[in-house]
Amino acid sequence: VQLQASGGGLVQAGGSLRLSCVASGSTFRGYVIVMGWFRQAPGKEREFVAAIQWSGGSTTYADSVKGRATISKDNAKNTVFLQMNTLKPEDTAVYYCAAGRAIRSDYSSERGYGYWGQGTQVTVSS
After folding, report:
1. Which of 64, 82, 113, 116 has its CA 20 to 30 A from that of 73?
2. What pLDDT score does 31 carry?
3. Which pairs with CB-CB distance under 8 Å and at least 24 residues apart come from 110-115?
4. What is the rounded distance in angstroms from the CA atom of residue 29 to the CA atom of residue 121?
5. Proportion of the chain above pLDDT 90, given as a percent
6. Secondary structure (DSSP) of 25-92
7. In what order do the strands lie in the sheet with 69-74?
């Protein structure tokens, strides 16, 4: 399974970005139960942002982005999206997508994900 994230960039506070993550590999559809987005700011640990159940579509969000972020997917294209609105400087981070087999209670835990993308930088200027 390979994951390719894209869509990051430099945006002013209050702006929006849409991140994409395309999954590939013959084993992806047999493996994935959940797709997630995590982020890591400079000097900080990686943290959970959002997750979506691959088959059913149920979603989970971190409190820090709830109401500003929307995770969605296109199963036919093996792609997951993260729409971020009303961006804040504290949203600045490298954003990683991940594929996993976590149960719902582990959606926000890195241990629930076995494959990770390379990350895409999001920088929000004040």
Report:
1. 64
2. 95
3. 110/38, 110/46, 110/48, 112/34, 112/36, 113/34, 113/36, 114/1, 114/31, 115/1, 115/2, 115/3, 115/23, 115/31
4. 27
5. 98
6. STTHHHH-SEEEEEEE-TTS--EEEEEEETTT--EEE-TTTTTTEEEEEEGGGTEEEEEE-S--GGG-
7. 2-6, 17-24, 79-84, 69-74
Place of tokens 């949203």: 91
Read off the pLDDT band of 13 (50, 70, 90).
very high
State the Rg of the chain over Cα.
13
Owner of token pair 């159940």 = 53
User: What's the one-letter identity of residue 86?
Assistant: T
The pLDDT of 28-48, averaged and rounded, is 97
| pLDDT per position as a tens digit, 64-103 | 999 999 999 999 999 999 999 999 999 999 999 999 999 9
pLDDT value of position 12: 98
